[in-house]
Amino acid sequence: MDKFAIHRVPLQPLIRQSQPTPIKSQQSFLTHLQEATKQQELKVSKHANERIVERNIAISEQEWQVVSEKVFEARQKGVNQPLVLMDQAALIVSAKNATVITAMDRTEAKQQLFTNIDGTIVL
Question: What would the pLDDT profile of 99-111 be if each residue is shown by its tens digit?
Answer without folding.
Answer: 999 999 999 999 8
